[in-house]
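Write out C-alpha cells for Class I SAM-dependent methyltransferase.
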Amino acid sequence: MYTPMSDLKDATLDHRRTHGCGSHPVVDGAQLAAWAIQAGARSAVEIGTFLGYSAACLANAGILVQTVDRDPVHVALAQRHLNERGLANRVNCMTGEAVEVLADLPAGEADLAFFDGMEVSVAEIEVLARALRPGGLLVVSNVKLGSEAAEVRELIGGWQPWEDGEVLFAVKPPRAS
C-alpha cells in the first residue's frame, strides 16, 4: 500500500529555506512512482538525494533505489527520513560526486534512472544511461536548468525523448550505448 510522503516534501522545502542549498523536491513523488511502476521498474538509480523524498516515494512503491548526493548533510537527513518510514532497507544512500560514485554500479541493470539534481550535465546523464538497462526509463527533472541542457537533449535524441514542462523522459533503446 502506497503511503503519501507529503510531510517529507514539506521537510525538503523547509530545509531549502534554512540550509540555503537550493534543494527542492520533485514536483510530485507519487507521480514519479507511478511512472516507475508503469515502466515496470524494480530498481532505480537517482542523482540528487536531497532529503530522500523521491527515493522514499520510489521505495514505498516497492522499488530498490541507489541514490547519490554530494552533500553529506543531505545524505544523513535522507537516511534518517528513510529509517523513520521503514524504507532504509530499500534505499542505498551514497555520498559523493555522482559521476564518480555511480561509475562503480553495474552497467545496464537499473530499470529507472532519475536525475533530480540542480543543473543537468552531460557527464551525469552519461553515467545514468550506462546504469540503465535497454528499454529502461530515464527521467530528468530540472531539464531547463544548466548550461548543458541542449547537449543532454542531443545525447539522448536517438532515444525518442519527450518533455513535459521541466521533466524530460526517454526510453533507452535496445542497442543504445
